Amino acid sequence: MAETLSLTGANGVSEIHIETGLLNRAGAVILETFSPSRVHIVSDSTVAPLYLEKLEKQFSLPVTHTVIPAGEEHKQLSTVEGIYHDLLAAGMTRKDLIIALGGGVVGDITGFAAATFLRGVSLCQIPTTLLAQVDSSVGGKTGVDLPEGKNLVGAFYQPRLVIGPNVLTSLPDSTFADGMAEVVKYGYISNREILTMVSQPDYKSNIENIIYECVKIKRDVVAIDEHDTGLRMILNFGHTIGHAAEKLGNYTDLTHGQAVAIGMVAAMRLSALLGNENLTAPLIDILKHIGLPTELNYDREAIFNALLSDKKKFGATVNFILVREAGRAEITPIDAEKLHEYVLKL
């Protein structure tokens, strides 16, 4: 399967390539889009030993790299500053190219560095995890965490090229499951057929079609609302409480996908408390089938206080994404005081 999707954003057109084995010829595909004088690749300590040298050898022009420590806990401004220093040492200019080679953390950090170094250097994303392939590499959200919360510093900066090489055979089962949380999210907010696909015993054999359907949803949503002021908020299903749980776990107790899974279950329970049909049980069944957690094992008062620092809070309300039926999500502003009562009941 080889598919290409296009997304037009504020800083140009992104081409999204989905193809097994594409990493083997990524250099040629990249140079069809860009004409840099040099390339700088950012990867992490998990991905670099597997794929960095293979990618570097595909370029005849000067290539340098930065390898950052793996893990959400390193998604900090200090890490970005280190990338800046490496870019300067490499002599990178605005006409050159920065490549993010890795999962969601690498993509977010590298995207933010590309958006802000010299006020913007061309960016290519090569996502190597399922989570990054179906979600974070597409749409142009970049950023880093602060002690107060997740992704509180960032920029909207579309890559001009996203290469989904499907290097998923090297992923541990837990990392694959992590990405499946975002897949389930897409099924609940937009396309219930995805839920049917992932409920099958052999769903991994259909992963390319699943990835394509998820990316297509994100492409269509971002094309309408690039800067997250309206429709794009539905992509946050499970993320409000999920981000709060990640923060309480110091970004080490839970992976992002695990937190999103827990957050989706909490959002379903919250929806039921608001008087909607309770869809929690079938969601829990799917998540357990994949191997993801479903219980929110944090103090509810602490969860509420953590989510108040989330970007989705507007004045005295918090925008929650509620699913009233599989395949359709709604943005629901909830008064913070009323939300406090509901969270204590979760």
What does it look like?
With 346 residues, the protein is of the alpha/beta class. 43% of the residues lie in helices and 22% in strands. The chain has helices at residues 26-33, 48-56, 77-89, 104-116, 130-136, 173-189, 192-198, 207-224, 239-248, 256-273, 280-290, 300-307, 336-345, and strands at residues 2-9, 12-19, 39-44, 63-68, 97-102, 122-127, 141-146, 149-156, 161-164, 313-314, 317-325, 328-335. Helix 6 (173-189) packs parallel to helix 10 (256-273), helix 9 (239-248) crosses helix 10 (256-273) and helix 12 (300-307) runs antiparallel to helix 13 (336-345). The model has no long low-confidence stretch (mean pLDDT 93).
Helix fraction, binned, reads 40-55%
Major sheet description: 7 strands, mixed
Q: How far apart, in Å, are the first and last alpha carbons?
A: 43 Å
Provide the β-strand percentage band. 15-25%
Helix/strand structural class: alpha/beta
Number of strands: 12
